[in-house]
């Protein structure tokens, strides 16, 4: 295999970001299912905080994805 | 595709499959990250949709429908009826305590029809053994997590009327 040190470091950083995205996504799936459950039970007050938190999680995922793109671009430059 | 290939030290397969293993690993991770981020966007959209439904929700105006005569149902007996629409089947029970209770017949787990068990004085779902209390429709056993919607009844003389639905806060 011809990976050099910066590339290996890049892969590690990308792996870390990916793992974080995966964890955030799991939380988001749980959030969606429990908000839906509450909504169907007639309790509508959980819907707005649920939506705000879910959007926040999405923005975090997007940030991590952009980080992955940047790390990738930088490593490729080397 | 080039017709003539300059002789080089690289074998032909390297020209034709020019993605190196390391590059491919990067691409796969990037694509996977993109896929996860798009999934996250879909989840956020789902949550926003629920919130929007909540904001736009208006308490529907329920009709007042005659359900049954009081003497029509014996103690421990049941009557099925539809409320508020013809496809919304409900169950009216005259409990051993001589009170009336009416609930949507649709199980809150996966929508099977619940029935009244006289022996246990509970509403039971045959699909996955879900059980609901007759007093308030709350789930007491099995997979259901939500209470059965309760049909609000009004007694006028010897007639029972359905006047609304309480989705309730009964866990
Ligand atoms: S549908 Fe009623 S318990 Fe599953």
Topology, please?
The complex is a heterodimer of chains A (78) and B (171).
Chain A: H1 5-40, H2 47-77
Chain B: H1 12-16, H2 21-56, E1 65-69, E2 78-82, E3 89-94, E4 100-104, E5 115-117, E6 122-125, E7 130-133, E8 139-141, E9 150-156, E10 159-166
Antiparallel strand pairs in B: 1-10, 2-3, 3-4, 5-6, 6-7, 7-8, 9-10
Bound molecules: FE2/S2 (inorganic) cluster (FES).
Residues 107, 109-110, 112, 125, 127-128, 130, 142-144 of chain B line the site of FE2/S2 (inorganic) cluster (FES).
Verbal overview:
The complex is a heterodimer of chains A (78) and B (171). Chain A is mostly helical and 78 residues long. Helices cover 86% and strands 0% of the residues of chain A. Chain A has one domain. Chain A contains 2 helices and no strands. Chain A is elongated and about 55 Å long. Chain B folds into 2 domains: 12-56; 65-166, Rieske [2Fe-2S] iron-sulphur domain (Rieske Iron-sulfur Protein, 3-layer Sandwich), CATH 2.102.10.10. Helices cover 24% and strands 29% of the residues of chain B. Chain B is built from 2 helices and 10 strands, in the order ααββββββββββ. Chain B has helices at 12-16, 21-56, and strands spanning 65-69, 78-82, 89-94, 100-104, 115-117, 122-125, 130-133, 139-141, 150-156, 159-166. In chain B, the strands form 3 sheets. Chain B has a 4-stranded antiparallel sheet, with no helix packed on it. A 3-stranded antiparallel sheet of chain B has the order 1-10-9, with no helix packed on it. In chain B, a hairpin with a 4-residue loop joins strand 5 and strand 6 (122-125). The termini of chain B are far apart. The mean pLDDT of chain B is 86. Chain A binds chain B through residues 1-3, 7, 10-11, 14-15, 17-18, 21-22, 24-25, 28-29, 31-32, 35-37, 39-44, 47-48, 50-51, 53-55, 57-58, 61-62, 64-65, 68-69, 72, 75-76, and chain B through 20-22, 25-26, 29-30, 32-34, 36-37, 39-41, 43-44, 46-48, 50-51, 53-55, 57, 108, 145-147, 149, 167-169, 171. The complex binds FE2/S2 (inorganic) cluster. FE2/S2 (inorganic) cluster binds at residues 107, 109-110, 112, 125, 127-128, 130, 142-144 of chain B.
